[in-house]
Input
Amino acid sequence: MKLLLKNASILTQDWTVIRDGFLGIDGDTICYLGQDRPQETYDAEKDMSHKLLIPGLYNLHSHSPMSLLRGLGSDLPLDRWLNEAMFPVEARLVEADVAVGTRLSLMEMVASGTVSFTDMYDRTWTTLQEVLDCGMKANLTRPLMAMDPNESYEQNFRVKESFQLVKDIAALNDSRIRCDFGIHAEYTSRTEIVARYAEDCNRLGGRVHLHLSETKKEHEECKQRHGKTPTRWFYDLGVMNLPIIAAHCVWVEDEDIVLLKERNATCVHNPTSNMKLGSGFMPVQKLLGAGVRVCLGTDGSASNNNQNMFEEMHLASVLHNGFNNDATIMKPVEVMTMATRNGAEAQGRTDCGRLAVGCKADVVAIDLDRPHLMPAHDILALLTYSVQGSDVVMTMVDGKILYENGQFLTMDMEKTKFELEAALQRLF
Amino acid sequence: MKLLLKNASILTQDWTVIRDGFLGIDGDTICYLGQDRPQETYDAEKDMSHKLLIPGLYNLHSHSPMSLLRGLGSDLPLDRWLNEAMFPVEARLVEADVAVGTRLSLMEMVASGTVSFTDMYDRTWTTLQEVLDCGMKANLTRPLMAMDPNESYEQNFRVKESFQLVKDIAALNDSRIRCDFGIHAEYTSRTEIVARYAEDCNRLGGRVHLHLSETKKEHEECKQRHGKTPTRWFYDLGVMNLPIIAAHCVWVEDEDIVLLKERNATCVHNPTSNMKLGSGFMPVQKLLGAGVRVCLGTDGSASNNNQNMFEEMHLASVLHNGFNNDATIMKPVEVMTMATRNGAEAQGRTDCGRLAVGCKADVVAIDLDRPHLMPAHDILALLTYSVQGSDVVMTMVDGKILYENGQFLTMDMEKTKFELEAALQRLF
Output
């Protein structure tokens, strides 16, 4: 099946815009991109007048099932929010709850232009099935936690599940779905268990998704506990011999940044979550200045409370200017790079994250024919400052349309509402 | 004409939610609100199943014509942005440009739930006509600027226009439109001119819209110039004998806050603009703690780059938590109060800003039947953290629907696009 998107504005991989252009798709791959109509014939054509085609967005840190907990305990300080609002409900979750929570996130993501996400939660097989049904891409993680001093490495069921998930996802042989190793965080794991886990991960090869220096408290307590920062602790335990996907990185220090760069780590900026939970400001300029790969993520909907990458792009664009009293700090091109190709790279997807011939057809269409997007003096500024998630009118993954003009083509809204009602009845 | 909105969730003035309720409108006024169907008959009924009715939003600081400049010079530092990107274009604007720029803002505002705004720009009669045609409410300002040392008070044409606009708007005798006095800012006005203007304003009575301590530079330079803060300067010149609507207030000091409270001033928080332009963080907790009325505004689209109050509510909700490393600082109820009744009060509209019998029917409907708004555990948290401007499906002002399900009922999108094209041809 060959599909031609015509009469579109197209954001190319060097961030220029082709006006009234053509983008050809052969199966799951972009086969043509240009100002002129291609010579070859196509099975179907789709008029994209007044639409801007951009590469699909990458949400590099989420806990997708947590949309079920959206808005719970929103006025509580962080520790009471976790202990009183989150943990008691999470302890009661069954698989059907995780399924519907995940699906709400997937619907919100595809409706706001996200094509791939990196997730961390338990009951990961349930999330996996939802992602397979939906058609998005994802790097899933079943993370290690090890707080019980009496539990051995061999006894830790999360270790077992983590490696089982890697095997099961490899067996699918589906390029859309990948599995990353995961360690929840320094403060939820014991040194000897992480050391053993790192050994096994290094033997198998792959990426490691983890939380890093999210709050000042956790960062300082790690220094008291281990005499070193969380970054140095992971480094010394061999975790960073593999590429890590480190969420938050709010309190990383200058020496940590050297280690992150040395090990080709990815730092995921979650601006809404960091603001809402009072965690603080990621030193994004230092990280970018050191050449560290920075991506964007939403975190879970319980601490955001959305899965909308345009909100994260917007916040990342303006926040650091305000914090540093300098209007020139975050440029739209930097933010767009974080939200697209940096995310694809960090997930190990070299043929994704940009609109170019030979790349996967992960294409998002923005409707420019709306008052708040006029005039379009500067497309990159428009994308980071003005476009809303709701301006997305088509989300395509591997050449397959998952969302178009308000309709979910692979997920059932009525069924989801029915299942949500059942979950809420069970839980509350 | 009596209209009954039925089967709606309704956010009442004490911030509780009536489920499956009824809201009755008689002409421009709310005549019924309750759980039970009213006894009296209505001319028409409108089913609002799955919709949440909230009071319309108040945008207390904008420069509405500047949507025409959206995205220009977005990577420049503040002074170069003003001098290289804004001023040269603004100098070329003709009335038709101001008209179409204003209309883009009005369309964006009504489509995202704003019913009233406080504006500051020149060519104010053009903006006035657009507002009248559109049907929104507004407090308009033609602000004083007086930088030429050779120009007397009598010679300053802005002074004349300011008072003429007050007269012309009073003559309209339309409760939707009000006129405020205006002083652009301390740094753009001479002491003797502002003193004379304040005398005349005090004689006439009214409110004064102005910029106050937006940037550290302007705040510190005022102290060098006058030996006092901008707040104390305005206070000493008699400006604050009238209620002021003071935009930004980022750098106000503790003693300024005492004066602002003493004079019943309104401080307008413009979080996106303050972040994007690198101005800094308004001390919103100190202001709220002192009992000062705080409202929300978008500022102009050249420095935002939107007129979407849900973005400001969202940013105001999360920003101060992040800056103060405390997740409990801004509560949804505080943010909702700022965005609705505080705005109405600051505009001098005592019968607006809340859904209650006897109040004006300024009603906004939010479609809750969307994945990113499920589940709805906490309606106020949903409104400030999760709802997008695009979730608005109806905006009603004084009982008249201006926007519904994507359609503008009082403005013409195609005509606006045509006029925009002509304006862009003239200007660029």
Notes: The domain at 57-346 of chain B is CATH 3.20.20.140 (TIM Barrel).
